[in-house]
Design a protein that fits this description.
78% of the residues lie in helices and 0% in strands. With 167 residues, it is mostly helical. The protein has one domain: Up-down Bundle (Ferritin), CATH 1.20.1260. Bound molecules: MU-OXO-diiron.
Length: 167
């Protein structure tokens, strides 16, 4: 495995781990605020990000690369509103998408078609996750500043999100 690809994949392991911990902090915040539906949503997102990280760890090992399990900074754990919480979610996903695109660029440059092929799963995943984040933010923007709207959003959040079969 080319060193620059190995480095990028190790960075990605870190970003997926960061997302997992960030979503865990967001789940915990929502739990403490009494938003059980939103808490469950982020507990599940956190698990998914951990799976994304693991998939990369296993791939780098299979390809004979050296995996570095990263040290992480403490994630944000205070949010001023649900809008701010979900904005954070969208920004986090957009950041991850950018990094994945960077890996694909490098794979094509170095003709590493195997890693490119592996990373296509992440490209599709990011499309879905960004779409989910945007849908939820759109709904919150419609609700505006209305507590009964937040109550319904929290109650119905699981129905706003399509289940994914291949995760
Ligand atoms: Fe695995 Fe949503 O980034």
């Amino acid at each position: 495995m080319h060193t620059s690809i190995e480095n990028l994949l190790n960075n990605q392991i870190k970003y997926e781990a960061m997302a997992s911990m960030q979503y865990l902090a967001m789940a915990s915040w929502a739990d403490a605020e009494g938003y059980n539906g939103i808490a469950n949503f982020f507990y599940m997102q956190s698990e998914e990000e951990r799976e994304h990280m693991l998939k990369l760890v296993k791939f780098v090992n299979e390809r004979g690369g050296k995996v570095i399990i990263p040290q992480l900074e403490q994630p944000a754990d205070e949010f001023s509103s649900l809008q701010s919480l979900f904005n954070h979610f969208l920004e986090s996903e957009m950041f991850v998408t950018e990094q994945i695109n960077g890996i694909i660029d490098e794979c094509l440059k170095l003709k590493d078609y195997n890693t490119n092929n592996f990373m296509q799963w992440y490209v599709t995943e990011q499309l879905e996750e960004e779409a989910t984040a945007r849908t939820l933010l759109d709904k919150l923007n419609i609700i505006g500043d209305d507590n009964s709207g937040y109550y319904l959003f929290d109650r119905d959040i699981s129905t706003f999100v399509q289940p994914h079969e291949d995760r």
